[in-house]
Amino acid sequence: MADHAPGAAEDVGALFPPEPAPDAAMIEAGRLLFAQECRFVAAAADESGLPPDTLPEVAILGRSNVGKSSLVNALTGRAALARVSHAPGRTRQIIFFELRRLMLADLPGYGFASAPKEEIKRWSRFVPFYVRGRAALKRTLVLIDARHGLMRADRDFMEMLDKAAVSYQIVLTKRDKVAPAELAARLEQIASELKSHVAAHPQLHVTSAHKGLGIAELRATLAALAAPPDAR
Ligand code: GDP
Fold it and tell me: Over the stretch 217-228, which tens digit does the pLDDT of each residue have?
């Protein structure tokens, strides 16, 4: 599929619906948050590995290959950060990174094509346990490939979050891969479907890690969920 230059997609905003867009102060708060040290805290394969939930937390997940590592790298500006969760054959773990005022929890992609049965069982229990029981979890970012839209595994996960009353927000990835008209139609379709999901945030983020699109806006959203600057 052809690449679409940033300018070609300018008619579709980084947030959808576009109101309220973050103002300059919110964008700056996001920039400052992500300019801080980003520290690896823990890798949890089960309940016993979870770090204390002392900071507001945001979980990030999506199907394998959705562009999660690229997005985490674009947000933090540190290419090595997401790599740890990416090594093939590695036990599935939630990777926790601390940005001083916010914890990021990076969940491995759902979809288990080649995982051993025991691993699938363990993980299928652990993720719902984590999202339901994590008091500090402010929001879950559900990453969706802009080319494909919502798929069955995404809907299953969203339903689980709805039942657990855990707030989540859709983040479209790879915006640069989709023509503006197709993107606009996809956004309308997803926004309309979200109306029946009780825990879904009505606003979608539209990003391209490769072109740096929508990253500042997503940082601003995350900064609004972080602990106040004087909390530590
Ligand atoms: P993960 O498996 O979800 O962590 O996905 P990765 O970040 O490893 O990305 C999967 C593939 O999608 C890689 O080939 C990336 O280069 C590509 N990709 C990720 N983000 C973007 C993007 O914003 N634009 C484009 N065109 N490709 C992307």
Answer: 999 999 999 998
